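Lecture notes, unit on binding sites. The following record was shown on slide 14. It pairs a sequence with protoporphyrin IX containing FE.
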Amino acid sequence: MTDLSPDFATVDFYTDTSLVDDPHAYFDYLRAQGPVTTLPHRNVIAITGHKEAVEVTLDTEHFSSVVAVTGPVPGLPFEAHGDDITAQLAAVRSKIPFSDQIVTEDGKRHADLRSILATLFTPSRLKALDAQLVDTANGMIDEFAADGKVDLVRQYGGPYATLVIADLLGIPAKTRGRFREYLDGAIPAEIGATPEDLAKNPLVKLGKDLFGLLARRRLSQSPVGKAGRRIAGLFGVSSGDDILGDLAAARYPDGTKPTLVDLTSLAAFLFGAGQDTTNRLLANGFRVIAERPDIQAKLRAEPGRIPDFIEEVLRYEGSVKCAARVCTKTTTIGGREIKAGTVLLLTYMGANRDPERFENPNEFDMDRPKLRQHLAFGRGAHTCIGSALARSEVRVSVERLLARMGNIRLSEEHHGPEGARRFEYEPTYILRALKSLHLEFDPLQ
Ligand code: HEM
């Protein structure tokens, strides 16, 4: 251990930026203490074992997602008593920051919201999307291809992820820039942020615009609106056949209409959830491509292996480090008792390098068996609903970027020479997010 490296036995995962550069070493340390380990701060137990992480994600009877985004930082607004805090939690739920998003809802309310989203990313919609993804990717690459260099995070991944989701949702071109601005600089789950800062949800700012767009979609689906739409269609005006249109028409499983407020919150979450996650996953993948000429050559020779490459990037360096749960009823995981009121640091990234599940987990190996057993998209009731979309976005991007950029390498000016590379990561406890990835390449075509 150098003077600068953290003392893993006492460090606070949620406030110490020294873990940002290499969270793997810390998760490996925790797993060596046991797949279920008590942390020294905040009444938190860390899960780093794959089997145990899966068990937690599937057990909605004993674990609530209400703290999935903020973790233990804001603290529970009550003193937990006894072995069942379900009623205590229900009474104060609305006081917990960020607790009204699909990812933090539980039980029937979560199932109702999820039933609406589950119909949106159909295989046919995703298939139809492929050609559009190729066009979007090519258009973005045109802007820097001749330069022979690019910061993949700022010049490609960020704007690409925004454009794709904005197109899918049906957000008018004039509003998109504003949406991007709302989210720019908003680092989710920022390390060292105060509980008040964490409670500020940047998605709320999107709400006003989305509410108006959804209200208009609903109106256009009414009998009067339908007639109007037919007339508008004759003049080439958009029919509103997009995700906002589907949301506006959606019903809960019991046939009732969701409120516009619920739909707005879902649409805002959809807009936000796939931006940094997809952008930074692509950057994590291109770091591997630039550092490993053998893998770069293999993907160029066998583009059909790109999906396997992406699965291994998700396992080896996914863009989500962790989620959180709170134990609602005292139970046992991995032979360890978990008391009601304990918060779990659910390290999807740690589980993805559990040697009990993946042989030589710290090696990048796209030929490993059972590639898709990683937990990069979570598991169980809250499994990522955008995983198929994210996989398509990243696959098309890798295909197009490899086709247009020959001999991809890291910029020594920005990342230092071989043997002394440097990379900066955003200071967030939730995301594995490169601040930039400066690549150089030989323009092709
Ligand atoms: C590489 C990209 C992505 C990664 C790594 C990722 C990761 C995740 C993870 C780990 C969860 C589960 C959180 C938990 O267990 O508490 C999740 C949930 C979710 N993701 Fe993603 N995501 C990605 C892209 C997307 C995209 C593109 C969308 C939509 C456009 C999306 C929408 C959602 C939604 C709605 C949920 C909440 C599901 C629920 O609570 O039922 N994600 N994501």
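Take-home: The first helix runs from residue 23 to 33.
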